[in-house]
Amino acid sequence: MTSLVDLPEIIGFFSYSREDDEDSQGALSALRDRIQRELRGQLGRSMKTFRLWQDKEAIAAGKLWEDEIKNAVGQAVFFIPIITPTVIKSPYCKFELESFLAREAELGRNDLVFPILYITVPELEDGASQKNDPVLSIIARRQYLDWREFRHRDVHSSDVLAVVERFCATIRDSLRRSWLSPEERKSQEEAQSRRREEETRQAATAAQALEREENERLGREAHAARERAEQDRLQGEAEAKRRTEREAQAELRPVALRWAWLSSTRLAVIGSLVVVVLGIALSPKSPTPLPTPSGQLAPAPAVPPVRAPASAAAPPAQAPAPTPAPPIRAPASTTAPPAQVPAPATAPPVRAPASTTAPPAQAPASTPVQPAPGAAQQSPAVGGWVGVRIQTVTADIADSLGISPPRGALVAGVDGSGPAKLGGVDVGDVIVRFDGQDIKDMRDLPRVVTATPVGKAVDVVVIRKSKEQTFQVKVGRLVASDNAPAPSNNNSNNNAAPAQKPVVQKVLGFELSSLSDDLRGKFMITPGAKGVVVTAVDSDVASSDAGKRLVPGDLIIEVQSAAVSSPAAVQAQIDQLKAQGKKVALLLVASANGGTQLAGPHYVALSLEPPTNGKK
To answer: What is the predicted pLDDT for the residue at 159?
Structure first.
């Protein structure tokens, strides 16, 4: 329902004093009848669906009168009180007015009372009286019709009919205003109440979710702090244990050396005695000297030197051969004495081995053992790993990336199968937070990563294109790898395409060239590398800071995160940065490493302003 005129039946209430009607010889009843007929016509209703209620019967005061009035007022949708001094003083008229005011509030309106001032009421013009009398204050606030100059005229006269027409038009317009029935208004209020309750419930649910997330975050941080504390404790215990073992070894080393020296000395003495005994045992007996024609004995032949056989217990040192026996002359008697065997020379001392066992005596204890050339060295796991190559974020690099103040670690390379690549981290990102810890400097990241448990999924916050982004990376296991052989620079190919002439262009004082087979061979650039090579540097640039950052042989891979393959592409990027008001360009460069192979790519901040070389 949109307005009160859409009601099936429209009823108004005509409130008046019967005494005033009788004194005016029914003029008030005639006025009510004229208003009813005029308003019915303006509303387009019949007398069955529209009526202006009037108390024509004399109803005695009491319960029956009150019920009749309440029933009529309960059906009325507008109220016309005739204002006279009698009405102001009548408790019945006051009851009718207060009853309809309650009905008006029930309908949700405040414009359905249309008073008619019929006889002058002095109190209505007195402000003090209005404040003391609720009926007068209500009538004064409402727009009332002044009928005092028409009350002695015929109700059917033209001027009275014109006033009645305008009065009824005012009532009609009020009834046509948009309106909701009490049932509709109650339904709407209930819907609004339910909506407010739902909003309150959702707000409470969101607050609980936020509180739960905050508690979970605090729990994760507390758990991470406990894990770090436990890891620090274990590392401290391991370091204390290693320090204790080193101190114990340092205390035992002099004792072990003395024991080794005594053991080697005993072995040397025993070896010398064995050599002597074996030399005596194996020496052949001297033959009996034969008589010569002169009657003298011929000297016995010299005893050949005897070498002691190798002994399992003796060191590999060889005992010296015994001195040859001198010739023995025969005494005066005919009986030849036995030949004398001289004592062997004392064996030289043997160097004590490092251990208490008997290794070869000649090997010093401190001689390091070198691995065979090309042998792989497999190291144990040494900590967490995410697979990135990083470098320091200098002031120039921070300026080119729009980072203030300079902080974090710049990713210069990413392992293609490493955790960082799988998590979304890319070359050119600046890592500023790892697992809730701020990365203020490049050196912070390796320390934090290696201290993170293997297999833990951590949040990594990076700055990419001047905006922070968060990626989740699962920390891998770091294993110290072997030194891989240098990549081969052999570019020979029987089916190689004919050499293309490189394109050369000078940019910011650097002579740049596209790659060719000759330049790859000259600067030892691998076949798979792509970019623009620096072939020469102007003299005024070579002495500047930029000349120290780029040298002939460097390969420019990207300019401001955009891949380049020709000098023109480099120049286009530089022109675009200058148009944006940039003063520094960020280049991804692979520099020549000792002239043998290209090192891992790294970032170089290059000033776009011409070098001054200290000149003004």
So the answer is: 93
The closest alpha carbon to 560, from 577, 581, 542, belongs to 577
| 149-181 residues labelled b (16+ CB within 10 A) or e (exposed) | ebbeeebeeeebeebbeebbeebbebbeeebbe
Q: What is the pLDDT of residues 545-573, one digit of tens each?
A: 655 577 888 899 999 889 999 999 999 98
pTM given for the model: 0.35
**Per residue in 137-184, pLDDT tens?**
888 787 789 999 998 999 999 999 999 999 999 999 999 998 777 777
* 305 in Cβ contact with 280 (< 8 Å): no
- Of the candidate CATH numbers 2.70.98.10, 3.20.20.300, 3.40.50.300, 3.40.50.10140, the domain formed by 4-179 belongs to 3.40.50.10140
Tell me the mean pLDDT in the region 588-615.
68
Reduced to 3 states (helix: H, G, I; strand: E, B; else coil), residue 473 is strand
Q: For residue 473, which of 536, 398, 385 has the smallest C-alpha distance?
A: 385
Calculate the alpha carbon distances from 268 to 273, 316, 317 in Å: 9, 10, 9
> CATH classification of 504-607, choosing from 2.30.42.10, 2.80.10.50, 1.10.630.10, 3.50.50.60?
2.30.42.10
Architecture of the CATH domain 382-479: Roll (2.30)
Three-class secondary structure of residue 366 per DSSP: coil
Query: What are the boundaries of each domain within the chain?
Result: 4-179, 208-283+315-323+345-356, 382-479, 504-607
Distance CA 97, CA 73 (A): 9
Cα gap 325→408, rounded to integer Å: 88
Q: Give the closest residue to 366 by CA, choosing from 353, 383, 347, 378.
A: 353
Helix (H, G, I), strand (E, B) or coil at 193: helix
The answer to whether 4-179 and 382-479 have equal CATH topology is: no
- pLDDT value of position 153: 92
Strand 437-438 with 50-54, pairing: unpaired
Are 442 and 409 within 8 A, CB to CB? Answer: yes
Q: Mean pLDDT of all residues in the chain? A: 78
